[in-house]
């Protein structure tokens, strides 16, 4: 399982109440803790871990950490190596799922490991069964003391930008399940390092082979986490200066047995991100990177577009794993009706993207006028700039003249004055002129007729938004 919290995958300390003797950042260092005999700082004995001062008042110490890779936690290790007379007597672990640090103050923390006793100079491992996608954890120690390392292992559950982009998805990233299967040589480091989402921090943070003294070349085989259409390969040799490969070749495969070469001995520069476009896009499930004759590579990126059905499966798994509050935010992006959102959240777990879309349609069947009006109120006026989603949907107004924008503003006012709610229309693919004409025609309707018209538009808008959010179509 992947360590979802280490600094090697982007884990970071968000907040803590004390780090008097040793920094909280040491908790997530990927290397094992060490002991330095006789080394002291101006505050006391140097310790490789997080250590707080001796508490003289009630309470306990804590540290909040952002997961480098959000996901479902399966195993936790609390390592108190070298902390003998200064380790905490007990600890507990809480978790939450939010999209930004700023929202931590409104989050509800869930206890995933209750208050549990610890021993000094040891590593204790605990199984976790919580099914949610975790983004942040809070380590509580009772009452104070030192912990060398915290390991949070589990299953990555990537976000939308890591699964669903048009030609820019890293199909081999460890975050989406990419795996190093085999290699000709692992003398200095393992090829699995190539798949980390973070930038390389040194030569040790990559894949380097021994010096080849005979014929041939080195290679590594990877299974894509998201099989799909490959458009570009990035062979990043950052930090490898006198020891980068001279050339690289790339082969692809559907089954890992029959291979087709798509890049033949392409020269690469040292200490650089070498972007190599394929002569034409190619569909694959496996990639073999060959380096000629040997050397070191920091990162490998296989950029392209995931197969829609596989990306959709990953997005449904993401949706099912969200805490309820985050699931409400997810569905609230598609439709502002709180009744519809509640129905969709309660409908989890979903089996497939089709299941989500069919549930969306049936959930609309039970809405009354009040809920429909709440849904309409979630839309900005046609012609007004909004968030990225609104601007994409109303892209037909982006090049409209000032006169046309003024006419749209006027018809919006007329519509709201007559019907009492915002004029909405399925704007995707429509020009500003088309949206204006539709509004002028709908002004002749009665209020009940227009609620029905707007409801039909809302249904279509929501379905398109959900398809995009579930990656069944690229953005």
Helical/strand content category: alpha+beta
Architecture of the largest domain in CATH? Orthogonal Bundle
Q: How many individual domains?
A: 3
Rounded to the nearest angstrom, the distance between the terminal CA atoms is 31 Å
Shape: globular
CATH superfamily of the largest domain: Oxo-4-hydroxy-4-carboxy-5-ureidoimidazoline decarboxylase
> Mean pLDDT, nearest integer?
96
* Major sheet summary line: 8 strands, antiparallel
Q: What percentage of the residues does DSSP assign to strands (E)?
A: 25-35%
Show unreliable segments: none
Q: What proportion of the residues is helical, as a percent range?
A: 10-25%
Number of discrete helical segments? 9
* CA radius of gyration: 27 Å
CATH structural fold name of the largest domain: UraD-like
**Topology order in helix (H) and strand (E) letters:** EEEEEEEEEEEEEEEEEEEEEHHHHHHHHH
Strand element count = 21
Quickly name the level 1 CATH class of the largest domain. Mainly Alpha
How would you characterize the overall build of this protein?
The protein is of the alpha+beta class and 475 residues long. It has three domains: 2-156, Sandwich (Jelly Rolls), CATH 2.60.120.260; 161-306, Galactose-binding domain-like (Jelly Rolls), CATH 2.60.120.260; 311-469, UraD-like (Orthogonal Bundle), CATH 1.10.3330. 24% of the residues lie in helices and 30% in strands. Strands 1, 2, 6, 7, 8, 9, 10 and 12 form an eight-stranded antiparallel β-sheet that branches. Strands 13, 14, 16, 17, 18, 19 and 21 form a seven-stranded antiparallel β-sheet that branches. The longest helix is centred in the C-terminal third of the chain and has 23 residues, at 447-469.
């Amino acid at each position: 399982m992947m360590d979802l919290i280490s600094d090697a995958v982007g884990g970071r300390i968000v907040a803590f109440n004390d780090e008097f003797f040793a920094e909280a950042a040491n908790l997530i260092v990927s290397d094992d803790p060490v002991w330095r005999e006789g080394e002291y700082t101006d505050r006391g004995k140097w310790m490789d871990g997080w250590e707080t001062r001796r508490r003289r008042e009630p309470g306990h110490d804590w540290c909040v950490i952002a997961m480098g890779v959000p996901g479902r936690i399966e195993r936790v290790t609390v390592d108190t190596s070298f902390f003998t007379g200064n380790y905490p007597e007990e600890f507990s672990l809480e978790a939450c799922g939010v999209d930004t640090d700023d929202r931590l103050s409104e989050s509800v923390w869930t206890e995933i490991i209750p208050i549990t006793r610890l021993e000094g100079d040891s590593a204790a491992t605990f199984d976790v069964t919580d099914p949610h996608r975790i983004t942040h954890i809070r380590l509580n120690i009772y009452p104070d003391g030192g912990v060398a390392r915290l390991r949070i292992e589990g299953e990555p559950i990537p976000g939308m930008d890591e699964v669903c982009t048009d030609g820019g998805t890293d199909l081999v990233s460890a975050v989406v399940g990419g795996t190093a299967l085999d290699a000709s040589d692992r003398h200095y480091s393992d090829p699995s390092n190539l798949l980390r989402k973070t930038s390389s921090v040194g030569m040790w943070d990559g894949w380097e082979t021994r010096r080849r003294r005979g014929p041939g070349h080195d290679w590594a085989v990877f299974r894509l986490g998201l099989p799909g259409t490959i458009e570009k390969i990035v062979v990043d040799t950052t930090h490898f200066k006198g020891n980068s490969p001279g050339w690289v070749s790339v082969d692809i495969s559907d089954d890992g047995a029959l291979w087709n070469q798509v890049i033949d001995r392409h020269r690469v520069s040292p200490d650089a991100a070498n972007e190599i476009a394929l002569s034409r896009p190619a569909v694959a499930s496996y990639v073999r990177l060959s380096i000629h004759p040997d050397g070191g590579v920091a990162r490998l990126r296989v950029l392209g577009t995931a197969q829609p059905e596989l990306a959709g499966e990953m997005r449904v798994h993401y949706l099912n794993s969200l805490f309820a509050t985050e699931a409400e935010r997810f569905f609230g992006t598609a439709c502002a009706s709180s009744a519809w959102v509640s129905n969709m959240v309660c409908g989890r777990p979903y089996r497939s993207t089709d299941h989500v879309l069919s549930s969306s349609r049936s959930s609309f069947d039970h809405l009354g006028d009040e809920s429909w009006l709440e849904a309409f109120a979630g839309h900005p006026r046609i012609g007004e700039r909004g968030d990225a989603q609104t601007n994409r949907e109303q892209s037909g107004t982006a090049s409209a003249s000032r006169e046309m924008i003024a006419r749209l503003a006027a018809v919006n006012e007329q519509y709201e004055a007559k019907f009492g709610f915002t004029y909405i229309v399925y704007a995707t693919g429509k020009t500003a002129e088309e949206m204006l004409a539709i509004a002028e025609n709908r002004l002749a309707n009665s209020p009940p007729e227009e609620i029905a018209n707007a409801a039909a538009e809302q249904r279509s808008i929501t379905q398109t938004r959900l398809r995009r959010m579930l990656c069944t179509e690229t953005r």
